[in-house]
User: Which sequence fits this backbone?
């Protein structure tokens, strides 16, 4: 039972060629180091700043694609490993979607909240992202445009965005929507 490490992209989503993102590793750890791995190979070691280490990807190319994970070390001992984070680099060919949160950006705990990702493409599916989470919250198909949280609580607050794709002969992606902050009171 070592510490739990979370790994996530800031901002979340698929990165366009030439774009940039930050791989963030965080844990409730004392002092030690994070080692970033890509496809099982050690890339870099970073000291903790507070309870996180950040690894930047600038001017992204296909070389940056892959499966990333963080290991937390004290001395030479690996105390914990994160889940694997898949980083994808793709051209954006679809229009940028628009995210809306209903009934509004500020809600009281216990309310119903609907996330709607709108894109002008008939067969697109969309992912809903919450910053700080390694996985996408939900895959929204065109038949079901909305992602609903029935009884929101403080933990549902945060910065949300969405990104859409189509599965034609190849996978085509949109840019990530503008980020909206949901505040739960």
Assistant:
């Amino acid at each position: 039972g070592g510490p739990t490490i979370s790994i996530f992209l800031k901002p979340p989503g698929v990165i366009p060629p030439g774009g940039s993102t930050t791989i963030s590793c965080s844990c409730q750890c004392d002092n030690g180091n994070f080692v970033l791995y890509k496809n099982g190979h050690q890339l870099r070691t970073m000291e903790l700043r507070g309870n996180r280490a950040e690894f930047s990807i600038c001017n992204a190319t296909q070389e940056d694609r892959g499966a990333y994970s963080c290991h937390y070390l004290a001395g030479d001992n690996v105390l914990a490993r994160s889940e694997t984070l898949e980083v994808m680099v793709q051209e954006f060919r679809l229009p940028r979607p628009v995210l809306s949160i209903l009934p509004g950006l500020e809600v009281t705990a216990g309310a119903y909240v609907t996330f709607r990702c709108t894109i002008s493409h008939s067969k697109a599916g969309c992912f809903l992202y919450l910053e700080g989470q390694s996985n996408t919250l939900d895959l929204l198909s065109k038949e079901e445009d909305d992602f609903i949280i029935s009884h929101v609580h403080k933990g549902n607050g945060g910065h949300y965005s969405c990104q859409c794709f189509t599965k034609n002969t190849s996978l085509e992606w949109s840019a990530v929507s503008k980020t909206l902050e949901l505040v739960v009171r």
Observations:
- The mean pLDDT is 88.
- DSSP finds no helices and 18 strands in the chain.
- The two ends are 33 Å apart (CA to CA).
